[in-house]
């Protein structure tokens, strides 16, 4: 599938998913007022909506119906955006999808509450699945959602603990474990599993799809970290270098830290212990040491000197290869379809995307 | 039931619930490390554990088994504590159960994450209910949990919006609607509904129990607000007058604002717009106006002058009367039991408690 067709497929799924999400919310009599407008703020901002598309494509590639997958696809988008709201609070991020973060607009209390409301709301359509898909499939989907929410919280906890401890003595395997939990599960593995369950796919096929999704997810996250350092800000929608300001534990930074001589590593470690300066307009906390432009430039130079971006890109390509192999196993016996083409096209897209 | 027997019943249920919660967590192979220790921090602090006791008592009063109710009772305690963690972040509270709040100890990012992890984890035992209680009861319990989580988030949203807008032109009905959603649903209504479902109670009985729980919940919350102004700090476990420092919308403060002449109301409104001073040790934000001891003393005097605590206590007693009537309807045809005695004893306990 060409990149432009893949983007069209994403757009189509996104429009269907958002229409479903709005319909779900408008069906609820209690859903009046600002809370539910705010629940839709992140989903309505410009975004790929990758997760619902993967769920829908998997369901349809296996012969399932679009209508059967849409509510669960909308729930995946809701979970994703709830996680983003809370992650933005936890990471102190300023921008999300070309606009200020939700806590930047309304403050931390409202942002935490809106995320909680989205998580609470998401259970409804999953319970409604009992009527449309039958109890068996609905319960299996709930099990997948339970697992993905738990994995995501655990992954986030691992990363927050690394930040708290200033831990950088970490290797690629630590990173992969963290991102598989934090984003891989809910962004890739759960969407293919849920799409596959709705279509009534066999266990062996679902297992191969999960392997495909796991490899794709790691490749995607590494590429996300690469883009944070190298992308064009206008297209990317987040601040360039934001990961360095936040001291985020990326495969790239971990590689640079491992590769650097002790003296450089000590300086980098001291920089990474400093906080990022507070939001524009907020008063600084005078007692804390803050990162400077020079600090971030030093980290960037360290990364360049040790070829850490190239190392990460190589790792992403290796995972992409694993995804191709797993998808070949997953699709055995399936007829050709645009949906299968989309899943297979995702591998190149994840590696080559510029936003 | 005498108050001391009621406290014994609470203690017994609490011990069983915490043992269940610890067993649940230790069964999970992934549940190692600091995240799961932190999930248990609030539950393990000294607390009444009212919600699991209400769930267990309702189940047993209707002839159900303790073992059938324990996992759901533990889940209710988990939800409660997750809500507390996020509420403490949202309200900027300093103390919880005689100790610093979770975000006070670990920071906001980790506190938000621990709450999310607890919410994610809670879905597991509710899905396991399909095996122990059957699919029908398990799904009905999930519907109740879905509703309670949504109501709680909506109630919290209403209160946060009042704070954001500085709204104090509110009457008792606004307050009751907010607290029924924010705490009444998950603290009282859901526990009796879940206990009743597990025991196989009939619809009419469950409806009467829900009316009992709704009235009890409002009485409890009003009494909570009364205690925040009048209790003995050592027994109460939270800071006295903390609600005034936070500018919390209590029935008491709303009554005082309605009753005060315009000049006093204007001064109170100006005070309530000010933030509370930040935590000890944190640097102040120089640009913001902060409440002073004199400000809080003025609010307290306003409340005293207008008899607002007495008004609230009268309202709490009226609701307690409604709870007694509803419980009489709910228990028709049930044999006497210590569990029914506990539920009926709760009405006096809620009004007379000192912590």
How would you describe what is shown here?
Two copies of one chain form a homodimer. Chain A is built from 17 helices and two strands. With 355 residues, the first copy, chain A, is mainly α. In chain A, a hairpin with a 2-residue loop joins strand 1 and strand 2. In chain A, helix 1 crosses helix 17, helix 4 crosses helix 9 (172-199) and helix 4 runs antiparallel to helix 17 (338-352). The mean pLDDT of chain A is 91. At the A-B interface, helix 5, helix 7 and helix 8 of A face helix 5, helix 7 and helix 8 of B.
Summarize the model shown:
With 355 residues, chain A is an all-alpha fold. The first copy, chain A, is built from 17 helices and 2 strands.
Oligomer: homodimer
In the predicted model, the low-confidence regions of chain A spanning at least 5 consecutive residues are none
Strand order of the largest sheet of chain A: 1-2
Structural class of chain A: mainly alpha
- Taken as a percent bin, the fraction of beta residues of chain A is under 5%
């Amino acid at each position: 599938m060409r990149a432009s067709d893949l983007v069209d497929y994403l757009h189509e799924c996104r429009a269907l998913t958002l229409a479903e999400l709005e319909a779900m919310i408008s069906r609820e009599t209690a859903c009046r007022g600002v809370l539910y407008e705010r629940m839709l703020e992140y989903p309505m901002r410009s975004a790929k909506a990758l997760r619902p598309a993967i769920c829908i494509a998997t369901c349809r590639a296996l012969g399932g119906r679009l209508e059967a997958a849409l509510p669960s696809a909308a729930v995946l988008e809701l979970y994703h955006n709830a996680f983003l709201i809370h992650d933005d609070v936890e990471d102190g991020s300023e921008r999300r999808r070309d606009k200020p973060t939700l806590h930047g607009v309304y403050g931390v209390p409202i942002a935490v509450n809106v995320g909680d409301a989205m998580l609470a709301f998401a259970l409804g359509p999953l319970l409604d699945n009992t009527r449309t898909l039958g109890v068996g499939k609905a319960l299996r989907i709930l099990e997948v959602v339970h697992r993905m929410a738990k994995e995501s919280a655990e992954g986030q906890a691992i990363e927050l603990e690394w930040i708290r401890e200033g831990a950088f003595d970490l290797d690629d395997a630590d990173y992969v474990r963290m991102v598989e939990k934090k984003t891989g599960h809910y962004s890739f593995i759960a969407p293919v599993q849920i799409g596959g369950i709705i279509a009534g796919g066999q266990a062996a096929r679902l297992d191969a799809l999960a392997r495909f999704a796991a490899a794709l997810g790691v490749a995607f996250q590494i590429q996300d970290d690469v883009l944070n350092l190298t992308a064009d800000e206008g297209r990317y929608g987040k601040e360039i270098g934001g990961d360095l300001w936040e001291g985020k534990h990326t495969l790239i930074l971990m590689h640079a830290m491992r590769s650097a001589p002790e003296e450089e590593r000590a300086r980098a470690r001291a920089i990474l212990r400093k906080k990022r300066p507070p939001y524009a307009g907020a008063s600084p906390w005078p007692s804390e040491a803050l990162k400077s432009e020079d600090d971030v430039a030093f980290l960037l130079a360290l990364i360049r000197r040790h070829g850490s971006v190239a190392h990460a890109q190589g790792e992403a390509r290796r995972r992409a290869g694993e995804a191709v192999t797993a998808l070949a196993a997953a699709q055995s016996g399936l007829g050709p379809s645009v949906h299968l083409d989309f899943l297979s096209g995702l591998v190149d897209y994840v590696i080559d995307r510029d936003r």
